[in-house]
Design brief:
Length: 335
């Protein structure tokens, strides 16, 4: 069983030598446990925060242990009445090829149906990132038909689901993404009404002008994934009583400062800014996953995936995700 451990904590930017490839045997099962062969591992930006030993909403990733993370796979051995060999499951198996799971723990493992939804999508569009988009849009931005909504990191796992959910509610949906290829894909395949390349419009003034053109009626809702100067530029175009779902600030995850240039706008424009952590809102997951599953099954949401091959490739793929090298949901194919 090949695994990736956190070997040491990053000093500033995360680097490949923070991780270590380890080979172990899988232990024999005891009653209540199942052995899962992980087909795909999810790589997510939140993992960067957990590599630090800092106070946060979640415990830090322990050093010397398997990196934590979401996985989908197949039950290959079972000593639990709840799971049979061959069941396809989603869980939190970590950065490894096989995981032993205590299936008696509620929520430790969930069976999934792959008839209409590809298995790997349970880590993306029909998984945690999809529900994240749903929560921020439905519960925080709460758009009316015809509202203009904007999302940063638009072509990623969360952004792509956000676009489909917002289009389904009759919104004008504008993305912000890095590079012409991602922006073209956003409009052509994710059905964004417009997408602004922040690498081309690389300062507040140019971004402001592009936002004005793409959002002629101003911005009613903003789903923030990035932070920093992009957030400043969007805030300047927000309509009165606009809502900002503060989901992520990836521009600062590797230690860069994220000053806010216009905090007075929150007052002047009477904005609502709400941060949230999707795992603290388990009550919405069934409703959100049903809608996301239907969007995928009916072909309205078919986002791209960036697939790294083999567990040894996980650290490099993860470091790339923090720099925007992924194109769509970043996963690792294990077997
Ligand atoms: P993505 O698939 O969107 O991948 C990350 C993307 O972020 C990159 O592709 C890149 O896109 C963009 N990015 C990276 N660095 C920068 C930078 N310095 N400036 C601008 N953009 C950058 O990831 P996810 O969809 O999984 O996650 C998106 C956000 O949602 C993250 O901030 C994440 O932490 C957050 N999140 C929050 C949750 C919550 O509960 N609050 C749950 C899940 C995710 P590009 O090339 O377009 O710049």
């Amino acid at each position: 069983n090949q695994q990736i451990h956190l070997d040491n904590r990053p000093q500033g930017e995360a680097v490949a030598s923070n991780f270590k490839l380890v080979t172990t045997d899988t232990p024999a099962l005891v009653d209540g446990q199942v052995l899962v062969r992980n087909h795909y591992l999810s790589l997510d930006p939140y993992m960067r925060g957990r590599m630090n030993d800092a106070k946060s909403y979640a415990q830090p990733q322990p050093v010397g242990e398997v990196m934590q993370g979401g996985t989908v796979g197949e039950v290959v051995e079972s000593r639990s009445p709840k799971f049979a060999v061959g069941d396809k499951v989603v869980g939190f198996g970590g950065w490894q090829e096989y995981s032993v799971v205590d299936a008696s723990q509620p929520g430790s493992l969930k069976k999934v149906d792959t008839t209409h939804v590809p298995l790997s999508y349970y880590l993306g569009a029909v998984g945690m990132p999809g529900v994240t988009a749903w929560y921020g849009l439905v519960k925080i931005i709460a758009p009316k038909e015809g509202d203009t909504v904007v999302v940063s990191a638009a072509t990623g796992a969360v952004g792509s689901a956000f676009a489909a959910l917002a289009k389904a509610r009759g919104c004008r949906v504008v993305g912000i993404a890095g590079g012409p290829e991602k922006c073209k894909y956003a409009v052509d395949e994710l059905h964004f009404d417009a997408c602004i390349d922040y690498k081309e419009h690389s300062d507040g003034k140019a971004m402001g002008k592009a936002l004005k053109e793409a959002c002629p009626k101003g911005i009613d809702g903003y789903f923030e994934n990035v932070g920093g100067w992009i957030m400043d530029a969007v805030m300047l175009r927000m309509n009165a009583f606009g809502r900002i779902a503060l989901c992520g600030m990836i521009a600062g995850y590797d230690g860069a400062p994220l000053p806010m240039a216009h905090p007075a706008l929150i007052l002047v424009s009477r904005l609502k800014i709400e941060g949230f952590i999707v795992s603290e809102h388990m009550e919405v997951w069934p409703e959100a996953l049903t809608e996301l599953g239907t969007l995928v099954a009916t072909g309205k949401l078919r986002p791209r995936e960036s697939v790294a091959e083999g567990i040894a490739a996980a650290p490099e793929a993860f470091l790339g995700l923090l720099k925007g090298k992924n194109f769509g949901k970043q996963i690792v194919k294990l077997v």
